[in-house]
Amino acid sequence: MTSQPFSSVTLPCSGRTMPNKLTKVALYEHLAKIYGGLPNEYHMGLYAEWAKYDWGMIITGNVQVSRDHLTLGRDIVVPVLINEETLAPFKKLARTIHADNSRDPSTSSCPLAVMQLSHVGRQSPNFIGGRTLGVPPLAPSPVRIGSNKRGRSHDGVTVPDAQDTPHPLLRALFQVPREMTHDNIMEVQQAFVRGALTALGAGFDGVQLHCAHGYLLAQFLNPKSNIRTDQYSVAPENALRMVREIVGAIRDVVPKDFIVGIKINSADYVGAGERPSDERVLKEAQHVLDHVRSIAHWGTIDFIEVSGGDYESPDFMNTKATSPRQAFFAHFAKNAREAMKTDAPADVAVPLILLTGGLRSPAHLQTALDAGHADILGIGRSSIVRPDLPVILNERITKATAAGTSIASDDEPFAHEVDAHLKVPSWFPKVPLIGAGVALAWYNMRMRWIAESQRKQTAGGERPS
């Protein structure tokens, strides 16, 4: 066994060291004030709970760089002006994640604190998206969510062809977006830089750019949402231009030891409801692997988070898969690390792979490491059900060692998750932002309950245990 979940790992560009490979990945908290705002006491309570346990890295939920492009209305938002007043709640959140107030730093290594930066683009809904009613969101091209039709360009102006009629709920929630001008693109890039400067000034160890789940940066990479013909098109030489310019602008203003990561969802490249042949799955896998390889060769990224699919099924570990998306994710996870090293310049620091998706038992974690699918292990919803998952894992390792076995054979889930019992109605549209439906609401309520419990303990003068 060459790698253990609790062994440390050094990030290649920043040189920062994670005390272990366990990462609480970004989860949408839904705890800010309506129409967005700064971190508040609910966030402090929630992250204080995670900070009590031995996570190697804790990534915040998506922090929006644009106040008028929110997701579900209660997003943390990067301030327009960075000063002591606006930085104060972010500083408190960074201190909370670093476990300054919840445990003795001399007895345990503190987790790295990373702020996820996001712009949702066309997935910012009406009513709660932060804009005046009738004002469309920005996007690479004027292609509405739910449309699978391509567009055409006349005299340099992109217009949509006849589009599919989206589900009525989609039509009510989402407008046809407004195509971004060059000035809009520059403004968004500067908003991401402002987000990174906010994280730096607040004491975070780094940022992660959200380039997944159909959000704006992912929209620039996807031919279904980007039908531009200029330098920000999806042509191979242009597809990553938006992301690369943002990364470069951030690296220009932060110190070398500041972490920069990227999140990519392999399933973004396979549309909902599609049943592609094996040939198509492999073609799409190669498409996203090409993006990963290019990003890796920049020499500016510490880690690439790969999410999508479901790591839980035993079929994931071999050539058989139970769904096209699962097959896509399996192929992607198996080959991403090798793809990054292909033709990499000798002086380039290749990013680490943070794998997220269905890692629900000790066996899943160990298998992901042993199979070479991951350098870092991402835990999402299980961290909500069991914030103390690292402690549970350590106990299971101790138990297996005492029995002369290993956690590679321990497939008992860390916790019972509710997804199987909370079904989304058949009429509910399958959109990345809202498709999680009832299950998403349950996890949001669970996070609020954790936050409330911590706040009550703090108000009562108790130190959280």
Helices and strands, in N-to-C order? EEEHEEEHEEEEHEHEHHEHEHEHEHHH
Helix content: 25-40%
Per the principal axes of the C-alpha atoms, what is the gross shape? globular
Count of strand segments: 16
Residue-averaged pLDDT: 84
Name the poorly predicted regions: 102-107, 150-159, 272-277, 309-322, 431-436
By DSSP (H or I, 4+ residues per run), the number of helices equals: 12
Query: Strand order within the widest sheet?
Result: 3-4-7-12-13-14-15-16
Judged by helices, strands and strand pairing, the structural class is alpha/beta
The termini sit apart by 34 Å
Radius of gyration: 21 Å
Largest sheet: 8 strands, parallel, barrel
Q: How much beta, percentage-wise?
A: 5-15%
What oligomeric state do these chains adopt? Answer: single chain
Write the layout of secondary structure elements.
Blueprint lengths: L8 E2 L6 E2 L3 E3 L16 H11 L5 E3 L3 E2 L11 E2 L6 H14 L14 E7 L19 E2 L11 E4 L2 E4 L7 H6 L4 E2 L2 H21 L3 E5 L5 H6 L19 H11 L7 E7 L12 H20 L5 E5 L16 H18 L10 E5 L5 H9 L5 E4 L1 H5 L3 H14 L34 H23 L6
Parallel strand pairs: 3-4, 3-16, 4-7, 5-6, 5-7, 7-12, 8-11, 12-13, 13-14, 14-15, 15-16
Antiparallel strand pairs: 1-2, 9-10
Helix pairs in contact: 1-2, 1-12, 2-4, 4-6, 7-8
